[in-house]
Predict the structure of Enoyl reductase (ER) domain-containing protein.
Amino acid sequence: MTSAVLFDHPGPPEVLRWRSVDRVRPRPQEVVITVSAAGVNNADLMQRRGHYPVPAGAPRPLGLECSGTITDVGADVTIWSVGDKVCALLDGGGYADEVAVPATQVMRIPTGLNDIEAAAVPEVAATVYSNLAMVARLTRGQTVLIHGAGGGIGTFAIQWASAIGARVITTAGSATKTRAGLDMGADVAINYRCEDFVAATSAATSGRGVDAILDVVGSDYLHATSSALHLMGTS
């Protein structure tokens, strides 16, 4: 037996309980990770509150990302070995002593990060890469507008876009967050509480607009955000 965090009914954090559960065994294309740390995401909070049903087929325990050590590998897995230190994007199940996950959803812990820090990487990394690299196809020399410099997705996106050589414009709601955005590699940081970010973006691009926008705000900002986009850009 092993342990996992489960709950019998929706509610506040107090409904969560450690429970004994069966040991997990990997399918042929899975690995088993002994969990060192698990990320806490909004989807976890919504599920625990009863606002977001667990997807069909997903493990009962919450937890969409984790870090730890591989302790078992499926018969078809060749890219990972027992003892590898990794972090992983999960379908669920991270709030547990161990979790089985497809080998293709696992990555090595980035150099310089401890297990706790690494557990917070997979969700934001997958979100940023899938949007900016796979959908927007952002490349060196292009300009991207990234909302939310102070959030997890924003901080990762700024660093990733800067690392590939894109020009980064970011927005945030305080001077502290805009300064943090600049420190992480943004070329322009706009405090949307003090200035019109559409006008500021237009000025920063000489009226051209940006090639891509990563918008984690949406809602009331959607129309204004779209106005900052170049004619052939991607949002």
